[in-house]
From TrEMBL, chains A, B:
Protein name (record): IclR family transcriptional regulator
Taxonomy of the source species: Bacteria, Bacillati, Actinomycetota, Actinomycetes, Micrococcales
Keywords: DNA-binding, Transcription, Transcription regulation
Keyword Methyltransferase part of the UniProt annotation: no
PANTHER family membership: HELIX-TURN-HELIX TRANSCRIPTIONAL REGULATOR, ICLR FAMILY, HTH-TYPE TRANSCRIPTIONAL REPRESSOR ALLR
Keyword DNA-binding: yes
CDD domains linked to this entry: HTH_ARSR (cd00090)
Gene3D superfamilies: 3.30.450.40, Winged helix-like DNA-binding domain superfamily/Winged helix DNA-binding domain (1.10.10.10)
Length: 249, 249
């Protein structure tokens, strides 16, 4: 993919422009985008202009740039995220009606837990996850389930790397984590109190498609809530999602 | 955005590659993609390779290409689609619990109704819309609401253009449509029996943000179902979404 002149392809540069948008930074000027990409200003401005023309970015009356509806449309057409989410949503709604906190669906993406969907009760407790947001695999309950079932090479890379403490109780010792992952594979679920926020407990189970774990289904409970109803609801929902994924083939 | 050598920018070519994916065609070989874009095979193959490296496309064991999870992630980060959909989903679920058919959210995009979300009851009747799918604005109930409140120049362009009959009962006469659009603006909803499929009736209402109509909320009912409960449920839900959009500012 290297480009003889600059060492990166045009595709990379376009992705660098799109990557300057985050769940917290949804509006930027073209100049801010140029600075954040590190690309020459003229290159960045030209790419922004092309992306606006193509509908992947939108420019408002104040010349601020945001992600465009056509990017959303392209991304959802026939994506595996949409298929998973379509299979999962009715079952997530059922979990939500029973547990009435936060119900979430995550996949493993570049060694992090990427959240595809989140349903939240109006009175639910704290929860920092966002749709299309990410959390470290060694800290979030969804991430731990995904890591437990990941390719061994990915698991080794994560456990050998720096393990950041997201909260005071995040487990950052590789040996302890290895034992937790083995226990997740054996028991079929994880309960992770305080690993993301002191006030909450994550509970997660794996979701399989064609025998492989493709997602983690989780709830975020207040720290002192009973976890048994959540484990049961999540395991039932995972079975339902797996049946629907089979029916979609 | 013109490129001196080829008349289209690299961004255009990348969008042409991504645009070969549809809700019905989610897997393609690189050769099929090249043929469908009309680009030289070597150019198309190089772009596909770059997009796979960047995570915007994914290649499976059988060398088939699909849309990548990173494209989905980029698209949803801080997009206006996500904000609208987040505000709307709880209210759509409430409509769904009352009406138990199909509940949908659409926006106007390039003179078509683009569907951002759809909830469906397991026993609901026929419905051809899909998430990230489109329908003509002059035929679908959502489209009619969006067209009624669109910029007059867009309305003129649609009404002057060819008006395709999606079903036998689709209204394709510009004068009749103009009267329907005026009635939608006056009454605040539309009931469109048979305009998309003979067996169903669409009911839609506008959703406003900062005084502008930004979306249409709709249900698809079996042709003979009562429409009054749907109109009431949709109007209440639109009010709720509008309040939540205000609170999100």
């Amino acid at each position: 993919m290297a480009n003889s002149r600059s060492g990166d392809s045009m595709t990379d540069r376009i992705v660098r422009v799109l990557d300057t948008f985050t769940t917290e930074r949804t509006m930027q000027t073209a100049t801010e985008i140029a600075e954040r990409t590190g690309l020459p200003a003229s290159t960045a401005h030209r790419i922004v202009g092309d992306l606006v023309t193509a509908g992947l970015l939108e420019r408002d009356e104040d010349h601020r740039i945001r992600l465009g509806m056509h990017l959303w449309e392209l991304a959802l057409r026939g994506s595996s995220a949409l298929r998973l989410r379509q299979a999962a949503l009715p079952h997530m709604e059922h979990v939500q009606s029973l547990i009435r906190e936060h119900t979430q669906l995550a996949v493993l993406e570049q060694e992090e837990a990427l959240f595809l969907e989140r349903l939240s009760h109006p009175d639910a407790g704290a929860n920092i996850t966002r749709i299309a947001g990410r959390l470290p695999v060694h800290a979030s309950s969804s991430g731990l389930v995904l890591l437990a079932h990941a390719d061994p090479s990915i698991r080794a890379r994560v456990l050998d790397g720096p393990l950041r403490a997201v909260a005071r109780e995040t487990v950052t010792d590789a040996t302890t984590l290895r034992a937790m992952l083995a226990s997740i594979r054996r028991r079929g679920y994880v309960i992770a109190p305080g690993s993301i926020e002191a006030v909450s407990t994550g509970v997660a189970v794996p979701v399989r498609d064609r025998g492989e774990v493709v997602a983690a289904l989780s709830v975020v409970l207040p720290r002192d809530a009973a976890t048994e109803p959540a484990v049961t609801a999540l395991m039932d929902a995972a079975k339902g999602i797996e049946a629907d994924l089979r029916a979609m083939r």
